[in-house]
Amino acid sequence: MLTCENEKELALRARNMRCHIIRMLEAAGSGHTGGSLSIVEIMALLYFKHMNIRPQEPRWPDRDRFVLSKGHAAPGLYAALCEAGFFPEDELKTLRKLGTRLQGHPDCKKVPGIDMSTGSLGQGLSAANGMALGLRLSGKAARVYTTLGDGESEEGQIWEAAMTAVHYKLDNLTAFLDHNGLQIDGDVTKVKSMLNPGARFQAFGWNVLYADGHNLRQLDAAIELAKQTKGVPTMIIAKTIKGKGVSFAEDKAEWHGVAPKADEAVQAIEEIMAGGCK
Amino acid sequence: MAEKIATRDAYGKALVALGARNKDVVVLDADLSKSTKTAKFGETYPERFFQMGIAEQDLMSTAAGLATVGKIPFASTFAIFATGRAFEQIRNSIAYPHLNVKVAATHAGITVGEDGGSHQSIEDIALMRVLPGMTVIVPADGPEAEQAVYAAAEHDGPVYLRFGRGGVPVIHGADYQFKIGKAEVLRDGGDVAIIACGVMVEAALAAADLLAAEGITARVINMATVKPLDAEVVKAAAVQTGAIVTAEEHSVIGGLGAAVAEHVVGNGNCPVPVEMVGVQDVFGQSGNPAELMKEYGLTAADIVAAAKRAVERKKK
Q1: How far off is chain A from B228, nearest CA to CA, in Å?
Q2: ipTM beyond 0.90?
Q3: How many whole angstroms separate alpha carbon A17 and alpha carbon B314?
Q4: Max CA pair span of chain A
Q5: B217 contacts chain A (CB < 8 A)
Q6: Domains of chain B
Q7: Domain around A83
Q8: Distance from the A216 Cα atom to the nearest Cα atom in chain B, whole angstroms
């Protein structure tokens, strides 16, 4: 259960992360705004409540792992890592610039706290499976978390990996589907009939849970339930809004891969600080 | 007639031995474990063997995940699927983060035989060689294959191991010590140097005999590590013999021949004629391995002809 105090703290973290996302993207002049904003509550719950991590010891062998399979939402991950103290806030403005550790897509060789390099869609769930298999083999209680995109799930490899996770009974794995319903070319149901992903994962044998991806209590309950589930991996279908928290970007496919300009960033920060637009 | 061992059999045997001494070694296969010879490891260490089914992309990225938590995964399938089907997984999940995954592919080259061109990987060396930080090893025989498996496990970083389907004559003794990046001069000679890898090393030795009978002395070099290339040995061969023949069961584009040619005209700064024996920018076809090697110009006689051309060119 999420206490009121927890919820307040996480909401504050989420607000800070949204501001970080807007500021770093504005400074970069390019990058993925919509899908970074849609995963903020998921990231806040993982990095500030559920994941067993040590920001001062990023390679701690017993830590829980996270794989951002939809790697283009890197600003969402960087915001969480910076908030958690893995690297200084100042560094966020180097996003996507020559020589930076904060590459356009997550690079586990460069950034403390990143467990896997991702960006080419469809590969992260397999990597998360490998981590879960390896940790279990080593007798570690650590858990593995991963966040997929709904558009990303058009990749065939996601379904290869979906079979693997069930075949190997990876109950130490919890996946989130950031189901914001949009991809670059439009609605996921129009681009490739990505209809009812929950039923699809269920048919593959997953424990499927549903949550409002911006409701901290619902997400928290689902994560807790996943931890208690034995013998199968859990997929949390998180219904989200692309661009969440910024009125002009919300639910707009065109904000998939566009960074806010200076005036837009000012408005976005105002709206985020005011507590969202809807 | 020398004893024949398929390098894939040596791989399977080495894996079992390696599994006993290193508990971090895990093996993944994509429904070909009987053919890739990983099955024995699976029987011996079932908890460390992961059957991935016919899903090569998942195979490679899962291996990557295992490597991030300290395991040493050997990911096996046929070369065509490992490096072709799952190329981008090897690139982005394994090579880009420089993870400690050993891509151990079998059934490479045209000696796959009757399965035909769709299954004959003639571009895998090129595909793996182009990846930054990837080590590429093409063992010549059973003992070298075995040693290469141990060396790959010791090496921290991604490695591509290329094994063949058919038996190849054993040219190395039990005391042979393979080292990554170190070429082996099997025979000395001053007129031409034959730089070969894999099954072509045996053909290179046979070619040297034939050339000797015609008064041409050939240095024979086993370049089992295609990347990193043993630059010193290549340069010495270029400077001391003035003519090079490369021989590989692979396309002449992008493989060992290309690596050698790039070095002699590039960083090695020792330009000499280079004649490449390999598959000439065409796909293979069904046939028995011996017929195919003849059809595609990969015999000792083809190396002899190439050596003569190289020697002729240096006179000009």
Answers
A1: 22
A2: yes
A3: 67
A4: 52
A5: no
A6: 4-169 (3.40.50.970), 184-315 (3.40.50.920)
A7: 4-273
A8: 29
